[in-house]
Amino acid sequence: MRYKLNMLEPAIRILRVIFVLSVVSAILYVFKQRELALVFTGVMLFLIVLILIGVAVELKQDNYLVNRHYKLRNEAKILSDSYECEYCGARFKMKLSFCPICGKSLKTS
Predict the structure, then answer these.
(1) Are 69 and 1 in contact (CB under 8 A)?
(2) C-alpha dihedral sign at 1, 57, 20, 31
(3) How far is 78 from 88, CA to CA, in rounded Å?
(4) Contact by Cβ (8 Å): 18, 47
(5) Which residues, other chains included, contact 44 with Cβ-Cβ below 8 Å and sequence gap of 6+?
(6) Tens of pLDDT along 30-82?
(7) Which of 7, 53, 55, 90 gets the most CB atoms within 10 Å of its CB?
(8) Per residue in 75-107, pLDDT tens?
(9) Where are the transmembrane segments (predicted)?
């Protein structure tokens, strides 16, 4: 996953639109424009479903990224001919159980 989608920022903007649509729908309903009020309510419900789908995508991505982070945490990454410390980014030639620069212990896999 190269880019993480952030669905919560558009959701906050869409909530304002939903509020305006609900007010317009209520006003139209009071003035006996029931068909038009029904259309505005339908659009409002569609936007609510869109927000729920966006939040579900956001939670799924967060879960994926957190699990991936914990899986790769404190493990020396293998580069072409050297290893890289996950904590400080120091590169060293031999696979060690600790980083020679920051001294943190690394997984030996």
Answers:
(1) no
(2) positive
(3) 15
(4) yes
(5) 18, 21, 22, 25
(6) 999 999 999 999 999 999 998 888 888 888 888 888 887 777 665 556 666 67
(7) 7
(8) 556 666 677 777 777 777 777 777 777 877 776
(9) 12-31, 37-59
